[in-house]
Design a protein that fits this description.
It contains 13 helices and 41 strands. It is α+β, with helices and mostly antiparallel strands.
């Protein structure tokens, strides 16, 4: 070979090598967040920077398949495509009415150089408030289906951020527990971390990891590994998928996902901001989901509901025997009608569910029938009477009493005229259970039923696709007041910065018997509450849920100050603003419905004064109704003060929050 020919060959080889090593940079529309992708010999890697600071560095991505091995080493990158997405969409139910999907998208095609030459596309969306990516399996000639044993998505976090997360012993969980605050580097290896998890960096940058569009796939968790070479301040989080039933929980090779191509994973989501309120206000999760798949949603009505199980099915002195019967339901229906509460929930009485079941402790027995009421309860009579009073009827059902006969049961519910139901005790998020929940939503929509999931995994934004999912639990909530004292104001302050980042969160709100901590005791009927009444009123604004509970019994509210606010507060919104927030300390949220604003503030066990600025308001005057902790709430936590004043956008109001306290206000445009 001549010297000139050799030089030319070396030139092109060096150019090809340089191109192969060149990073692909995808910036958010405002340029503050950059996702950088690099294909190495061992695996694809990515970095995430925010304002030129590296938050996640050189994190590897790979997938392990049963029988066909790892997809990660020795890959070839085809030409990526990048485009700007800018669209708005309407939410049937949500924390906003109109959302904007504004991001830069990259489609990065990857294929193996050898063997079967499988192809997988990495889809990346970079928003102004975060990053998301997913794996897409296009239809291809030599690969028809797969069984996934591990998804090794990693997050190599820099600077040893402070973590706030729920740690779990295993994948069988209702996701109801206390959150832990700890430096990332201090977490023991292999600790199973639920999502969303919040990471606070030393410079007060915030990053939360969760997932969106969980559909036909296994739920994701995180576990920690120390950084390579013991790099100080660096820890690697690796995705862990919930195994299919009858699989070893963490054993190598256990089956996690089975799918036929084409297929795609959920989105791996990183919410990012230098203000923690940015994460709460974000609409990334719904933007990453498909549009509504229910053709007609005119029947769907968000609102508030009773839930008599919580209060112990309390009725006043009666001329009838309380129980699973019409008269007991009528008492609650009349209460709803008189106070503009949209729904009454028929649950149980005397620890026996409303439907026929020969199992113990609500667990379905061999002859369970969720479409047949117990003797003495005429569900048609209940539904007919409620309809006359303008109230919808809902029921509670153990999931496995429902699922084997879904269409049969829902057909009967539609015939009776039920509006919806709570589905409970699933306690799994493997692919099989994820698909069951999706099937429940689809079938329920066909029969004009809304769904409230309890004993269930976190939301992933799918209420955009199936808006008949009005709320779900996945948190330790006030139901525990019936058997423990764990639901405290300090615990409440963990929600907005962790679980609530995933979306609507159901709690048994409305307990109107707050007592000082020294007087707190466990009561299964008429449960007592920690914190002040204003704290619990404010939870209706701080939390996001499209089906709010009014869980106490009717006479608990009669003549009580503050109940008028519970009756008027909406459950779906047009806009949300976080006005004040200090993680795990306090928060003030403003939510708009029409021209009215509802503002809720809560604090932990520390009393404090918080300034509230109204510069988010349009010009003009507003009449503000204020409900605040009374001066004597340390002795009488149910006491509150009410006042009305005029507010404009130039005003700043300092509100006083007692220990475990709160404050709410409603602003009406004058």
């Amino acid at each position: 070979m001549k010297t000139s020919q050799l030089s030319i060959l070396l030139f092109f080889v060096s150019i090809a090598s340089a191109l192969a090593q060149k990073e692909l940079h995808v910036a958010s529309p405002n340029g503050r967040i950059i996702f950088s992708f690099n294909l190495t010999k061992n695996a694809p890697t990515y970095r995430v920077t925010f304002d030129k600071k590296t938050l996640i560095d050189k994190s590897e991505l790979s997938l392990v398949f049963q029988g066909t091995g790892v997809f990660g080493p020795n890959l070839f990158q085809n030409t990526p495509t990048i485009r700007l997405i800018d669209e708005t969409y309407e939410l049937v139910v949500g924390k906003v009415k109109t959302a904007r999907n504004y991001c830069r998208e990259a489609v990065i095609p990857l294929s193996e150089k050898v063997a079967s030459k499988r192809q997988i596309n990495l889809i990346v969306h970079v928003f102004d408030d975060g990053v998301a990516f997913r794996y897409e399996f296009p239809k291809q000639q030599n690969w028809a289906s797969y069984t996934l044993t591990d998804e090794n998505t990693t997050f190599r976090l820099m600077q040893n951020p402070t973590v706030r997360a729920l740690f779990l012993p295993n994948y069988t969980s209702s996701h109801e527990g206390l959150y832990t605050t700890i430096p990332l580097g201090s977490i023991k290896n292999d600790t199973l971390m639920d999502m969303p998890a919040l990471f606070e960096f030393p410079d007060k940058t915030y990053l939360a990891i969760t997932e969106a569009a969980l559909n036909d796939y296994a739920g994701m968790y995180l576990t920690k590994r120390n950084g390579r070479s013991g790099t100080p301040g660096v820890s690697v989080l690796t995705s862990q998928l919930s195994p299919l039933p009858n699989q070893p929980s963490r054993a190598a090779g256990s089956e996690k996902v089975k799918a036929v191509l084409p297929h795609k994973t959920p989105w791996r989501v990183m919410l990012i901001g230098d203000r923690v309120g940015t994460l709460i206000e974000s609409n990334m999760l719904t933007s990453l989901n498909e549009p509504c798949k229910i053709p007609d949603v005119s029947w769907l009505k968000p609102g508030k509901t009773t839930f008599p199980w919580w209060n112990g099915n309390i009725t006043p002195d009666t001329t009838f025997a309380p129980g699973n019967n019409f008269e007991t339901q009528k008492y609650y229906i009349d209460f709803c009608a008189a106070n503009h509460i949209e729904y009454h929930s028929v649950v149980e009485y005397g620890l026996h569910e409303w439907y026929v079941n020969d199992g113990a402790g609500f667990v379905p027995g061999p002859n369970v029938n969720a479409a047949k009421a117990v003797p003495g309860l005429d569900m048609q009579q209940v539904c007919d009477y409620a309809k006359q009073r303008g109230v919808g009827i809902r029921v509670w059902v153990f999931w496995s009493a429902l699922y084997p006969k879904l269409e049969e049961v829902f057909t009967q519910y539609e015939k009776w005229g039920l509006s919806g139901l709570m589905v409970d005790f699933m306690d799994r998020d493997d692919q099989e259970m994820v698909n069951i929940q999706t099937e429940i939503l689809r079938s329920a929509a066909r029969h004009k039923l809304h769904i409230q999931f309890h004993g269930a995994y976190k939301p992933t934004g799918m209420h955009r696709t199936y808006p008949n999912e009005l709320t779900r639990e996945a948190t330790l909530n006030y139901e525990t007041a019936k058997w423990s004292g764990l639901a405290t104001p300090d615990h409440d302050l963990s929600f907005p910065f962790t679980r609530l980042l995933a979306g609507p969160m159901d709690m048994h709100l409305g307990g109107f018997r707050a007592v000082p901590n020294s007087q707190y005791k466990i009561q299964y009927t008429r449960p007592l509450m920690h914190g002040t009444r204003c704290h619990h009123m404010a939870m209706y604004v701080v939390l996001e849920s499209y089906l709010g509970m009014i869980a106490d019994y009717p006479d608990a509210y009669k003549g009580q100050p503050g109940f008028d606010f519970l009756a008027q507060v909406p459950t779906i919104w047009d806009e949300v603003r976080v006005l004040n927030a200090d993680v795990n300390q306090y928060i003030t949220l403003a939510r708009r419905k029409g021209t009215d604003w509802f503002i809720g503030s809560i604090t932990n066990s520390t009393a404090r004064d918080i300034p509230v600025k109204f510069d988010f308001l349009p010009d003009g005057k507003y009449s503000a109704e204020l409900y605040s902790d009374a001066p004597d709430v340390a002795q009488n936590p149910n006491h509150l003060t009410q006042q009305t004043r005029t507010i404009s956008r130039t005003d700043v109001l300092t509100i006083k929050l007692a220990s475990g306290g709160g404050q709410v206000m409603r602003l009406r445009k004058l």
